[in-house]
Amino acid sequence: MSERILEHCPRCGAAGLSRPNVNKWVCPQCKFQLYLNTAAAVCALIQDDRGRLLVTVRANDPKKGFWDLPGGFVDPDESAEQAVIREVREELGLRVSSTHYLCSRPNAYPFGGITYRTLDLAYVCRVESGQRAVAADDVQGIVYCRPAELDPHRFGFDSIRQIVEFFFKRIHPL
Ligand SMILES: [Zn+2]
């Protein structure tokens, strides 16, 4: 691994931390051990009544302007289901009425000079009828796509592209 995430010990300030595993740092002076484990994240697959998939356009870096699915990091003390319901409300103003787990894919999320490793958990979400999605938070736009209209290269993250492809293969075999 060539990533330089930690250069000094957070406890004693010594330099020269060793990294015996991808997620573990050890201080040569005070032997402090720090783990940066994979973070849980969620994303939502929402279809309108015509079977089109709701795709968001990212408002911020990383990958500003690229396609994404609604979602984000799971907060401490929160279930993945609670997280996906909260994210859909924050980003789109939609109330989710049911969630069904679909699959997971690993992702790398660069932010502020650190590449966070995430595990993206995908949920098929139904939303209460009569609502209109409004882009908010870190979403700058909304696109509804049929499978034939999906351009895989416009997705900012491989994990999300893979989840969308898996969804349409499973749910709507072409
Ligand atoms: Zn130390």
Our count of helices gives 2
Provide the CATH architecture of the largest domain.
Alpha-Beta Complex
Shape, principal axes of CA atoms: elongated
Helix content: 10-25%
The radius of gyration is: 19 Å
Largest sheet: 4 strands, mixed
Ligand inventory: zinc ion
Description:
This protein is of the alpha+beta class and 174 residues long. The chain folds into two domains: 1-37, no CATH class; 39-171, Nucleoside Triphosphate Pyrophosphohydrolase (Alpha-Beta Complex), CATH 3.90.79.10. It is 16% helix and 37% strand. The chain is built from two helices and ten strands, in the order βββββββαβββα. It has helices at 80-92, 158-171, and strands at 18-21, 24-26, 33-35, 39-45, 53-58, 67-68, 71-73, 96-111, 114-127, 139-145. The strands form three sheets. The chain has a four-stranded mixed beta sheet, sandwiched between helices. A hairpin with an 8-residue loop joins strand 5 (53-58) and strand 6 (67-68). The longest helix is centred in the last third of the chain and has 14 residues, at 158-171. The protein is elongated and about 60 Å long. The termini are far apart. 26% of the residues are buried. The model has no long low-confidence stretch (mean pLDDT 91). The structure holds zinc ion. Residues 9, 11-12, 14, 27, 29-30, 32 line the site of zinc ion.
Write the layout of secondary structure elements.
Layout lengths: L17 E4 L2 E3 L6 E3 L3 E7 L7 E6 L8 E2 L2 E3 L6 H13 L3 E16 L2 E14 L11 E7 L12 H14 L3
Parallel strand pairs: 4-9
Antiparallel strand pairs: 1-2, 2-3, 4-7, 5-6, 5-10, 8-9
Zinc ion binds next to loops.
